[in-house]
Design goal:
- The protein is 43% helix and 12% strand.
- It contains four helices and three strands, in the order βααββαα.
- It has a three-stranded antiparallel β-sheet with strand order 1-3-2.
- The chain starts with 12 loop residues before the first strand and ends with a helix.
């Protein structure tokens, strides 16, 4: 029997950290949206562990409305901070 290649298997569940990374939201925002029933609820995986179904997160993301807003302008804040740090002794 062939060996299962786990690197090729798409995960079924994600933890909060990975959900936040995928949808570009802060953990507090995801938790508020879950409480307000505006985001998929996590599933109980074991006694004290929950996870979000990847399929439900993808469906939520695809159902988000298209925005007419442009991304914010890049203010260069990070570059200025890095430049100031490199100038100090």
């Amino acid at each position: 029997m062939p060996e299962l290649k786990t690197a090729l298997v798409k995960p079924l569940y994600l933890d909060l950290e990975n959900v936040c990374a995928i949808v570009s939201l802060a953990p507090a925002t995801v938790q508020v949206l879950v409480r307000e029933s505006k985001f998929p609820k996590p599933r109980l995986l074991s006694g004290r562990r929950v996870g979000w179904l990847v399929r439900e997160i993808e469906e939520w993301a695809e159902a988000r409305p298209v925005s007419d807003l442009l991304p914010p302008r890049n203010t260069g804040h990070r570059k200025r901070r890095e430049a100031m740090a490199s100038e100090s002794p």
